């Protein structure tokens, strides 16, 4: 299968500092490349280059014909437009029919918990809601390639899982994803290749270092308290802490996705998730 995007022999300076040196990157359909690295390593700059927002000093960027690119920057600059107006303007650039565009906006807004904020000006939204708008604008026009810069930042656990599941489905249907992130859970769930951006180069790594004793800690809200815990809980969870307002579950990483789905189907709301040593 041919590459949908390929960067060759790429070198670039930023404010006289050599940021990249002879860097190469290619991605095929149904792949997700995760790019990790310390703050300032150049993840955002690299994504800007791939999106065509920054000129290339040396090297070539080749994108397969007729490929649509969706780009979610690290932050969406707020303005006085409402999300609905902003998203409608972007959709009209691609000549969506008004009927299809309205339906797509409403469907995605509902899926990612944005429906109540569609008519609130962007400059009055919380950071989390702004990031939801940012995510929706990137996927609105059904791109072939998605470039994402820390897409889960500022999101609650439930929204994170909705985004991850949408991205999994998108990739399985042929989409290609390049994501700049240090979020270990996102990488574990989505990435087919992992690179660390270090010393001006992309260094391939097999997997993120994870000690065997490291597990997922999942916290769910229990309101209303009459909700029944799913029957599969005992098989999937290593430890259960059943409180008055919250249920905290510990699970092996490989079981965490199935456990989250079981709890969400039972009506619980995911409040947070993180790695811990049990």
TrEMBL record:
MF-aspect GO terms: ATP binding; ATP hydrolysis activity
InterPro entries: AAA+_ATPase, ABC_transporter-like_ATP-bd, ABC_Transporter_VariousFunc, P-loop_NTPase
Source organism superkingdom: Bacteria
Protein name: ABC transporter family protein
Entry keywords, A to Z: ATP-binding, Nucleotide-binding, Transport
Domain ABC transporter residue range list: 5-224
């Amino acid at each position: 299968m041919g590459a949908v995007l390929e960067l060759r022999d790429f070198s670039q300076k930023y404010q006289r500092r050599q940021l990249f040196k002879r860097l190469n990157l290619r991605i095929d359909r149904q792949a997700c490349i995760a790019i990790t690295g310390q703050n300032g390593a150049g993840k955002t700059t690299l994504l800007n280059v791939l999106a065509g927002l920054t000129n290339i000093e040396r090297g070539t960027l080749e994108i397969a014909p007729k490929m649509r690119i969706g780009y979610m920057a690290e932050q969406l600059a707020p303005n006085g437009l409402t999300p609905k107006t902003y998203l409608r303007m972007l959709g009209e650039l691609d000549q969506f029919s008004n009927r299809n565009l309205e339906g797509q906006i409403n469907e995605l807004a509902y899926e990612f918990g944005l429906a109540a904020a569609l008519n609130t000006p962007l400059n009055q939204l919380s950071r989390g809601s702004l990031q939801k708008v940012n995510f929706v604008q990137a996927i609105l026009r059904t791109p072939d390639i998605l470039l994402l810069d820390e897409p889960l930042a500022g999101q609650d656990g439930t929204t994170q899982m909705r985004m991850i599941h949408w991205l999994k489905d998108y990739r399985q249907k042929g989409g290609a994803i390049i994501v700049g992130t240090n979020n270990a859970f996102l990488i574990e769930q989505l990435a087919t290749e992992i690179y660390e951006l270090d010393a001006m180069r992309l260094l391939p790594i097999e997997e993120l270092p994870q000690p065997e004793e490291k597990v997922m800690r999942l916290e769910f809200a229990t309101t209303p308290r009459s909700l029944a815990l799913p029957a599969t809980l005992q098989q999937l969870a290593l430890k259960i802490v059943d409180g008055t307002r919250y249920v905290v579950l510990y699970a092996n990483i490989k079981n965490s996705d199935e456990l989250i789905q079981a709890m969400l189907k039972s009506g619980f709301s995911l409040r947070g998730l993180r790695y811990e040593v049990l």
